Amino acid sequence: MAKKNLYQAVKLFEDVLLTGSEVISKKMDQNLFDHVSKQQFELLNTLKLKGPSSPGNLALVQCVHKSAISNRLKKLLNKGLVQWENSEANDDKRSKLVSITPQGEKLISEMDKAIFAIIEDILSNIEDEKIDTFIDIFTTVKETLIAKGDSTDETNH
């Protein structure tokens, strides 16, 4: 694999993520964010995707300091959107995991529907074959990351 092509692919991926986030944020009904900030939504979405996680792992995945995660978690706990779970490892509070509550899952589901509607509208002119290729490529990349141990799935606890 040519390093130049890989570099271009990674930079394009970063650009698509950044541009996509910006476009979706602008088109999103801001009333959906009445209950949570965008950062809190990202934390909820991370929990939905990864399952119960430690605050330290959430900070690592979201590339923020643990104090930022603590502040977000406090707000989400007070809103009933997340809850503490005891880790099976031991009862030490530092090993407790955070999980999303049914109320949090409902909120994420509503927001996911709104985001998908925006993406569907934006990408409606892309041929099915290209979407299939996109799925194949990202499936391969994800499987490779997991196989190489670069996924944080294993450091969840």
UniProtKB/TrEMBL annotation:
GO terms of biological process kind: response to stress
**From which source organism is this entry?**
Priestia filamentosa
MF-aspect GO terms? DNA binding; DNA-binding transcription factor activity
Q: Show the InterPro entries listed in the entry.
A: HTH_MarR-typ, MarR/SlyA-like, WH-like_DNA-bd_sf, WH_DNA-bd_sf
Keyword annotations for this protein? DNA-binding
Q: What is this protein called?
A: MarR family transcriptional regulator
Please indicate if the UniProt record lists DNA-binding as a keyword.
yes
Task: Give yes or no: UniProt keyword Ribonucleoprotein.
Answer: no
* Superkingdom of source: Bacteria
